[in-house]
Design a protein that fits this description.
heterodimer; A: 155 residues; alpha+beta; Alpha-Beta Plaits; SH3 type barrels; 2 domains; five-stranded antiparallel beta sheet; four-stranded antiparallel beta sheet; 9 strands; B: alpha/beta; Rossmann fold; five-stranded parallel beta sheet; 9 helices; globular; EC 2.1.3.2 (chain B); pyrimidine biosynthesis (chain B); Aspartate carbamoyltransferase (chain B); aspartate carbamoyltransferase activity (chain B)
């Protein structure tokens, strides 16, 4: 078991400068990558999924070299990774820790639950006001209908 | 840009409501005011709605404006697959004002974002129909002389009926309203509106039976149970005939009480009610033209 963990560490190696995003639910890993547009970055990225963790039985982690995120950007992942934690790394040291926070407005990312909403029939960026953060409840700017956390689908 | 769109009833403040009421009264006194002379209004009906369209087009005509547009999407470029975005971009370069009816919810808000000229929402699916609400308000003000301390009964389809939702929101801006909701289990007022009323400390009561409780009412707002709002036809059959207002039920009602209905009615108001002086729904429809003249004036700053 110990040997297994050692091997894992090698696979998801330490970075000298950049951001480590930890405690992502494994099933949300690729959505997080897409929301943060890490699929388009030229920076080195390592990630691991289905890792053991005390809190999540099945967590994922992303390490991005030489890239730092604004709070507004990082809060975009709060909808799918509400317990994610960010470690800001400078010279191999964690210099700052951040938690994500559900924003007051959600632009894009989520599909409106109402099948008769105009955003589901024309190429429109969705826009919601967050009327409750726990559980997450979104009100569509266009059709004014509510999308509940259980109904949320990532675009 | 600060365009005066009218998309949702809550886009307007209490002051806007009162200004529209004043202007509507002025148009009622003198309906033919050529304030739209030389202007073109696009009337875009992506789904047919004869009553709303004729009311708008009458208002525009009485104000001396010209109308371009279509009365259902079959006769427009939509049938060729054009997006709403492109239709609105194009039309907003031709016309001074857009009046739009569309089957999809949120389409009006989106059109207002795309358009360079003001957009008036003439109904976007089950979402909003703010000009109906303003004409309902004008009818209430005309018959009750006030918006304060009114006891409003809403009857029928309170779940899907957008007119009752918007009217509730608008009247909640005034002093001390009381709401009474009469609806079958399946068609109750949605929780979000009840939460809103509770938060504002406004009293409301829910009833299953349509009985002599209407003797308390200042306004009885009847609605039609709309078949098209149901995904399950069995559900519709179960509730369509539940509440019918008959003339005999009006005996003990208050003298100032008036019956409103957005029309068309099917059978929810018996025809013997029509002769009663408390039946106000046909005058209400007539008020629609004056209210819409006022809304157009407000949107284009004509007065």
């Amino acid at each position: 078991m110990k040997e297994h963990k050692k091997k894992l560490k090698l696979k998801v190696s330490a970075i000298s400068e950049g951001t480590v995003i930890d405690h992502i639910p494994s099933e949300s890993l690729f959505d997080v990558i897409s929301i943060l547009e890490l699929d388009k970055t030229r920076n080195m990225i390592t990630f691991g999924a289905n890792l053991d963790s005390g809190k999540l039985t099945n967590k994922a982690i992303i390490k991005v070299s030489n890239q730092f995120f604004e709070n507004d950007d990082i809060n975009r992942i709060a909808l799918i990774a509400p317990h994610a934690k960010l470690n800001i790394i400078r010279d191999y040291e964690v210099v700052e820790k951040k938690v994500v926070e559900v924003p007051d407005r959600v632009i894009g990312i989520v599909k409106c639950f109402n099948p008769k909403c105009i955003t589901n029939s024309e190429p429109i960026t969705t826009s919601f006001s967050v009327i409750s953060k726990q559980p997450i409840t979104l009100k569509c700017k266009y059709c004014e209908k509510i999308t509940h956390e259980k109904q949320m689908v990532i675009r | 840009m600060n365009k005066k769109d009218l998309i949702s009833i809550m886009d307007y403040s209490k002051e806007d409501y009162l200004r529209i009421m004043d202007m509507a009264a002025d148009f009622e006194e003198n309906p033919n005011q050529t304030l739209l002379e030389g202007k073109v209004v696009a009337s875009l009906f992506f789904e047919p709605s004869t009553r709303t369209r004729l009311s708008f087009e009458t208002a525009i005509s009485r104000m001396g404006g010209r109308i371009v547009g279509f009365s259902d999407s079959g006769s427009s470029s939509v049938s060729k697959g054009e997006t709403l975005h492109d239709t609105i971009r194009m039309v907003s370069q031709y016309a001074d004002l857009i009046v739009m009816r569309h089957p999809l919810e949120g389409s009006a808000r989106y059109a207002a974002e795309v358009s360079s000229v003001p957009v008036i929402n003439a109904g976007d699916g089950a979402n909003q129909h703010p000009t109906q609400t303003l004409l309902d308000m004008y009818s209430i003000l005309k018959t009750q002389k006030t918006f304060d301390n009114l006891n409003i009964f809403m009857v029928g389809d309170l779940r899907y009926g957008r007119t009752v939702h918007s009217l509730l929101m608008a009247l909640s801006q005034f002093e001390n309203p009381i709401f009474n909701f009469i609806a079958p289990e399946e068609l109750q007022m949605p929780e979000e509106y009840k939460i809103y009323l509770r938060e504002k400390g406004i009293r409301f009561f829910e009833h299953r039976e349509f009985t002599d409780i209407i003797s308390e009412a200042d306004i009885v707002y009847m609605t039609r149970v709309q078949k098209e709002r149901f995904s399950d036809p069995m559900e519709y059959e179960k509730v369509k005939n539940v509440y019918i207002l008959k003339n005999s039920m009006l005996k003990h009602t208050k003298p100032n009480m008036r019956i409103l209905h957005p029309l068309p009615r099917v059978n929810e108001i018996a025809t013997d009610v029509d002769q009663n002086e408390k039946a106000y729904y046909f005058q209400q429809a007539r008020n629609g033209v004056f209210a819409r003249e006022a809304i157009i004036s407000h949107a284009l700053n004509l007065k």
